[in-house]
Design a protein that fits this description.
The complex is a heterodimer of chains A (304) and B (369).
Chain A: E1 4-13, E2 18-28, E3 33-37, H1 44-51, E4 59-64, E5 67-68, H2 73-79, E6 80-83, H3 95-105, H4 114-124, H5 137-149, E7 155-159, H6 167-184, E8 187-192, E9 203-208, E10 211-216, H7 218-223, E11 228-233, H8 237-246, E12 250-256, E13 259-264, H9 271-280, E14 287-290, H10 295-303
Parallel strand pairs in A: 3-8, 3-9, 6-7, 7-8
Antiparallel strand pairs in A: 1-2, 1-4, 4-5, 9-10, 11-13, 11-14, 12-13
Helix pairs in contact in A: 3-5, 4-5
Chain B: H1 2-16, H2 19-42, E1 47-53, H3 58-69, E2 73-79, H4 82-90, E3 96-100, H5 104-111, E4 114-121, H6 125-150, E5 158-165, H7 172-202, H8 205-210, H9 216-245, H10 254-278, H11 282-299, H12 311-317, H13 321-335, H14 343-363
Parallel strand pairs in B: 1-2, 1-3, 4-5
Antiparallel strand pairs in B: 3-4
The chains are: A alpha/beta (304), B alpha/beta (369).
């Protein structure tokens, strides 16, 4: 049986005028990292809050390890770990005080479940007497994760844990999640607006405007991609994007950092013909490569 | 129980590590009492005294000498009658008039009912009280020494009658201390408690607490207990200052007074809890609490006499908890009445307490919305 099972979940705000979560159903399996990936305002936080019993759905049902999020909310609250999007620890309390407080909140002690948080806590232990408000963003997240883990929850809910965290800390954070999954078979449901973090999850749901675009493993989503996708660069990246969009046979073109990603109609364009037409427009150092799509490419494709 | 204990500890950490909270909770209440009462008191000197001596005997001249030689007093005139004294008061030429009754020495030594009347300008009630007290002290000292010298029996009495001009109401701080206590308790319990609860919601920590197995009652109790403790501390400090430094009487039973205060503190805490359940930001919680202070000052009888208010205001004043607390406090502190005389006030406070509690219970959310 799936550890989380969601069926036809609907959540509206402003007396039904704003649909935040639009009839969603999904399952999360035991011991997997499940990612909710989508832009701000897609409905990720609303889903988290319904599953953590903090708000009520308009309709639909959800269970966590067989417990109903409405009827059994008291029981559920004993067995979940939740890290809200906003940093939600007591800034005027030290690292150690925060951890000890949340341990007693969950009727346990730091010692009892220290093995769960040991790897993570060791990293911030040198600062255990520092007030949590004075920690760096990455350390705050580590402490928050410790606090959410200290009672050995069945499921860990992490709402945008890497937002506002530097790239190195983000990478470390994902490594910690992988280790928790590996060592303790912990089920983790995590949301993020960063598409590049999708590959860290076992399965992901791409979400927009309260609806899922797709649910699958990252590879499964990429394999389903049917467009012809090229990465293109030239000496004038800025003008290149406009020129590409004007070129017949180019379906979409968007900037992707170092390169532009372009989907084309292969019956109209070949890599050679595109290079030639770009050269005719004055571009030099043109590179065109067929590439495997990223999750972001898939997201944009599914979006349209 | 362990959850509650560690939660209460956490609340104290919040308070103790926030200098602003400490200032409001511990320093401000004392300042509110000391500033108007005690500090101003010390400024009283160069008291201009006029004397009306209807006896002109040895005893009265001794007392007058003592007044004249006291550094606090400045003897201006020897007047013949009260009329003249009143004129001097009107022209602000004197602060105090001391009037000796007839046959002073004779009555003092034989019939033990020698009379002195002290008249003060009551338009500055605080200072007037102090001036009168100083004059009384001089007279009392004289009486004591006279007893020792002459080996006269104790109990020999000079009857001192005080009169305040323009403000026959009497000493203001006697009335004013119960009011200040009412206001401080409201401020601490209502404002600080509601802000403390709303802060958890605003900073997002409430989200974690609600998603945890903590029972609601633990969260609420843990929020209330520290402010209850601090209110009691403030109450004790204010009472000590009032009784020992400002000579406010505590005529009635101290336990009874503390019991009434305790009920009032609980009522104020429930009001704070109620505010926190319907308010979303710390700023609004603070504003609402400050708005509650205004009716407390104006409609509780702290500043203005309720009986002289227009009828609508009198009706509204009945729902102001501070009104009942102040009424009961004055009865106990000044009149020294028994418990049965403050039952009505106590019952009304308990009723308000229950209403606030039920409303807060109804509005408190076990979820975020």
């Amino acid at each position: 049986m799936s550890i989380i099972s969601v069926k036809d979940l609907v959540k509206t705000y402003n007396k039904g005028r704003t649909k935040a979560v639009d009839n969603l159903s999904f399952d999360v399996e035991r011991g997997e990292i499940f990612g909710l990936i989508g832009p701000d305002g897609a409905g990720k936080t609303s889903i988290f809050r319904m599953l953590t019993t903090l708000i009520l759905a308009d309709s639909g049902t959800a269970t966590i390890d067989g417990m109903d999020v409405v009827k059994d909310f008291k029981k559920i609250r004993q067995h979940i770990g939740y890290m809200p999007g906003q940093f939600s620890l007591y800034q005027d309390m030290t690292v150690e005080e925060n951890l000890a407080f949340f341990a007693t909140v969950f009727n346990t002690t730091i010692e009892e479940n220290y093995h769960l948080v040991k790897d993570i806590y060791e990293q911030i232990k040198p600062f255990k007497d520092r007030r949590s408000g004075k920690l760096s963003g990455g350390m705050k997240q580590k402490l928050a994760l410790c606090c959410a883990l200290i009672h050995a929850p069945l499921v860990l809910f992490l709402d945008e844990p890497t937002t506002g965290v530097d790239p190195v800390s983000r990478k470390e954070f994902w490594e910690m999640l992988q280790k928790l999954k590996h060592d303790f078979k912990l089920t983790i449901i995590v949301s993020t607006p960063y598409m590049d973090e999708a590959v860290q999850c076992d399965r992901i749901a791409l979400i927009q405007n309260g609806r899922f675009l797709t649910i699958d493993s990252p590879d499964g989503i990429i394999d389903k991609y049917r467009e012809t996708l090229w990465a293109i660069r030239s000496n004038q990246m800025h003008r290149l994007l406009n020129d590409l969009r004007q070129t017949p046979g180019v379906l979409t073109a968007s900037g992707f950092g170092e390169t532009h990603h372009v989907t084309v109609d292969p019956s109209v364009l070949t890599q050679e013909s595109l290079k030639n037409s770009l050269a005719a427009l004055g571009h030099t150092e043109i590179e065109v490569t067929a590439i495997r799509p990223t999750i972001e490419d898939c997201f944009m494709d599914l979006q349209s | 129980m362990k959850q509650l204990r560690s939660f209460i500890k956490k609340e104290f950490i919040h308070i103790l590590r926030d200098p602003r909270s400490l200032l409001i909770l511990l320093v401000m209440p004392l300042l509110l009492v000391i500033l108007p009462g005690y500090v101003i008191k010390n400024d009283v000197k160069d008291i201009r005294v006029a004397v009306i001596d209807r006896s002109r005997d040895e005893m009265t001249s001794q007392i007058i000498d003592r007044l004249a030689s006291n550094s606090y007093f400045h003897l201006t005139d020897n007047l013949d009658n009260e009329e003249e004294a009143l004129n001097k008061f009107k022209n602000n030429e004197i602060d105090l008039a001391v009037i000796f009754g007839p046959d002073f020495a004779d009555r003092l030594l034989h019939t033990h009912d020698a009379e002195i009347q002290i008249i003060a300008d009551g338009s500055e009630p605080n200072q007037a009280t102090v001036r009168v007290t100083y004059a009384q002290q001089v007279i009392a000292q004289f009486q004591k020494e006279l007893q020792q010298q002459a080996g006269l029996p104790a109990g020999m009495n000079i009857r001192i009658a005080n009169r305040m001009l323009y403000n026959p109401q009497q000493r203001s701080e006697v009335n004013f201390v119960p009011g200040i206590i009412a206001m401080i308790i409201l401020l601490i319990c209502c404002m600080m408690t509601s802000v403390a609860i709303v802060r958890e919601r605003e900073t997002g920590t409430m989200e974690i607490l609600l998603a945890s197995p903590l029972p609601t009652i633990v969260i609420v109790l843990a929020k209330l207990v520290p402010y209850l403790v601090i209110s009691l501390l403030d109450l004790a400090a204010i009472l000590c200052i009032s009784v020992f430094l400002m000579d406010i009487p505590m005529e009635g039973n101290l336990i009874l007074y503390l019991a009434v205060s305790f009920i009032y503190i609980l009522t104020a805490l429930m009001l704070g809890l109620l505010i926190s359940t319907v308010i979303k930001t710390q700023m609004t919680a603070m504003l609402i609490s400050l708005l509650l202070i205004i009716p407390t000052i104006y409609l509780s009888g702290m500043v203005f006499d309720i009986a002289s208010m227009p009828l609508p205001a009198q009706i509204v004043s009945n729902i102001v908890p501070a009104k009942w607390f102040i009424l009961a406090s004055r009865k106990i502190m000044i009149e020294g009445v028994e418990a049965s005389y403050v039952m009505k006030e106590l019952m009304i406070l308990v009723a308000e307490l229950i209403v606030f509690l039920l409303l807060a219970w109804k509005f408190f959310k076990t979820r975020l919305e």
